[in-house]
Amino acid sequence: MPKTPLNPLRELFRLFLALTLASAAVTLIAGIAAIAGAQEPDRIGRKGLVPLVVICWLLVARVPRSGLTKVLGLAGGRQPVRDIAGGLLCGVLSLVILNGVLLLLGARLIEPEMGPAMLLLKTVLYLLQALALALLEESLFRGLLHGRLRATFGPTVAIILGSTIFAVSHFLRPPKSRPPEAWWDTMPACFAGLGEMFTLRWREVVGLLLVGLILAIVREGRRTIFLAMGVHAGWVWVRFTSNKTLEDVDERINEDLWLLGTKRLYDGLLGWAALLFTLALIWWLRVRAAKREVGS
Questions:
Q1: From 70's CA, which of 16, 102, 135, 144 has a CA 20 to 30 Å away?
Q2: Residues forming a β-bridge with 246
Q3: Predicted model pTM
Q4: What is the SS3 string spanning 264-294?
Q5: Residue 4: its pLDDT value, please?
Q6: Other residues' Cβ atoms within 10 Å of the Cβ of residue 246
Q7: Mean pLDDT taken over the chain
Q8: DSSP secondary-structure letter at 111?
Q9: Rounded to an integer, what distance in angstroms lies between the CA atom of residue 234 and that of residue 227?
Q10: Contact in structure between 22 and 172 (CB atoms under 8 Å)
Q11: Is the CB of residue 264 less than 8 Å from the CB of residue 209?
Q12: CA distance linking residue 71 with residue 293, whole number of Å
C-alpha cells in the first residue's frame, strides 16, 4: 500500500514547536552558563541550537525508536564508509582547486599561523570536527527535515524548501551590529541576524542555498545521508584548514568581490562554480561506477 502523505500544516506546526522549544532551551543553557561564570554564555547557548532542534522535533513528531535511524537518513546504506570517504574526497578536491585558482589570481597568500607539527595536529582535529558537524547537520537537514518534507510535499519541494530553511538557519546568530545584551537576549539577538540576509550578505545566501540544493540532490539520489555527509565534511575541512594557512589579499579581493568571494569560499562566483563542480564530479563518478557494474 502507498504511504499516506503527512499533513503539511501539522508538520509545519511541529517544526515551529521544535524551534520554539529549542530556543527556550538555548536561553536556559545560556542562563546556566552565566550563573557558572562563563565569559560568553550566549555563545555557549547558541552552540546547542541545532542538536536541540533535532531532539525537540523527534519528541514532538513522536518518532518510534525502531525507526530513528531511518528518519535521520542513517539506515539502508550498503557501504556507508565508502560513501563518506568518496564524498569527502569530492568535497576536498573541489575546494582545493578553488583555493589554487585564488592563489593564482593573487587573492590569497600562503601564510600558515603555526608550525608544521601543530598544523598537522590541527588538520586532524579539524577533520574530526568537520565529520561531527556534518553528521549533526546532515541528520537534521538532509535526514529528518528532508525526509519529513519529502513525505509531505514530494521530492522537488523537499529539496527546494529544505535548502531554503538550511540557508536561513545559518543566519540565526547575532550580527556584529547587534550583540546580545545579556544571556536572556541570546535568541532575540540570533533572530536579529536574519535581517542581514538580503542586505549586507546576499552572496552568502546564494552560496548557502546552492550548498543546500547540492547536498539535498546528493541525498535524494542515494537515499541516505552518508555521501552528502562526506561532501559536507570535505567542504568544512578545507575551510577550517585554509583559514589557518591562507590569508586574504584584501586589495585584490575588493576589486572583484563578487567573483573571488571571501574566506567563506561560498560567497563568490568562483566558489559557486566549485560547489557545482562537486555535484558534477559525483555524477560523473556514479555514471562510471554504473558502467563498470554493467560491464561486469
A1: 16
A2: 110
A3: 0.89
A4: CCCCCHHHHHHHHHHHHHHHHHHHHHHHHHH
A5: 64
A6: 19
A7: 88
A8: -
A9: 11
A10: no
A11: no
A12: 30
Nearest to 201 by CA among 173, 182, 229, 179: 173
Vertex 287, ends 286 and 292: CA angle to 5°?
95
Instruction: Please give the single-letter amino acid code of residue 204.
Output: E
Q: What is the Cα 44 distance to its own chain's centre?
A: 19
Is the four-CA dihedral 248, 251, 254, 259 of positive or negative sign? negative
CA distance 93 to 79: 21
Helix (H, G, I), strand (E, B) or coil at 4: coil
Quick: pLDDT tens for 178-228. 888 887 888 888 888 888 777 767 899 999 999 999 999 999 988 899 999
User: Phi/psi at 246 (nearest 5 deg)?
Assistant: -120, 150
- Residue 263 falls in which region: left (phi positive, over 0), alpha (psi -120 to 50) or beta: alpha
Q: How does pLDDT run across 5-21, given as a tens digit for each residue? A: 677 888 788 888 888 88
At 6, the amino acid letter reads: L
For residues 158 and 5, what is the distance between their CA atoms, to the nearest angstrom?
13
Tell me the C-alpha distance between 149 and 5, whole Å.
10
Ranges of the chain with pLDDT below 70: 1-5, 64-66, 200, 295-296
To which residue does cell 536574519 refer? 194
Yes or no: say if 240 and 129 are a contact pair by the CB < 8 Å rule: yes
pLDDT number for residue 1: 43
* Residue count of the chain: 296
Is the CA virtual torsion 120, 122, 123, 129 positive or negative?
positive
Radius of gyration of the chain (CA): 20
247-256: pLDDT as tens digits: 999 999 999 9
